[in-house]
């Protein structure tokens, strides 16, 4: 949810990337909100002369200038699970145009697109994750769709075979870098996604001077985000909880909130300014979930708010254990309880400084270095 509210420009780089070369930027389906969409926009800022292709654009996505595939004219846009087996074909029949450089933003099959022979076209792929639907369905309940069970192994083989032409990969995290190596047997550089840390750090004085008197959970209310666990943790810690977001689990979470001793407040679809207020008023962000990277914990730290979460995935990169938060090896709520008292030991300024290393300027610099190196 967070990282999806507004899109400010990244810091200036030395010059526009790939001047004088024809460039295609390719993304999966384009939704109204999402971290991968924000990455795609930031890449487009660095290559403003590029053509931009997507499978389709959701009806509520306000993004001009996108060229949609023929899949956008079919009912399959309403079911990603049904559309998934067709995606490799769609990427191979996207356009007859050819480009000097292709940069794909991939979390399914966008990296399989071919817009020129490998001898003539440099293909770079920024990977949010190898398709969870087919490679690691345990991470994402959508991959458990019965329609995907029979073709999953075939799709894995297709995924590997149709991506041999990619010249260079960048991964959004060390977690995804390891997955690329494990599934595709390819190396990747790590370029963490951009976070607008400047906005969250530069809150009005009234926001910054709030008492920090509650725990905070932010994100989409879906099962794998573990907000039911966050409610149980807050109960064990004996600290009120605010849950900000929206999603299909709302009713179940409200029922769970009624069964605990601490107050649980729901903030449904807060705007960006309200979200910043919530970060600054929180004693800590609860994040007991395995994410590939996780923009929300970085935003929290940009507000001086420590993170208490699971010692897995992206938090191993974004949180300095014992300095900007605490990492826990368990999903047992009682394992988190001791940190209720230790949160006060942490220095907010340390978290703010650490969050700056994930800024939009850092992303622009690291992505530019990757592109220049891979296309030299």
From TrEMBL:
Residue limits of the Glycosyltransferase subfamily 4-like N-terminal domain? 64-198
EC number(s) given by UniProt: 2.4.-.-
Tell me where in this chain the Glycosyl transferase family domain is found: 211-337
Membrane-spanning ranges: none
Keyword annotations for this protein, in alphabetical order, are: Glycosyltransferase, Transferase
Kindly give the Pfam families that the UniProt entry links to this protein: Glyco_transf_4, Glycos_transf_1
Look up the domain of life of the source. Answer: Bacteria
Q: Per UniProt, what is one GO molecular function of this protein?
A: glycosyltransferase activity
**Entries under InterPro entries matching the protein:** Glyco_trans_1, Glyco_trans_4-like_N, Glycosyltransferase_grp1
Q: What is this protein called?
A: Glycosyltransferase
* Species name: Phytohabitans kaempferiae
Q: What is the lineage of its organism?
A: Bacteria, Bacillati, Actinomycetota, Actinomycetes, Micromonosporales
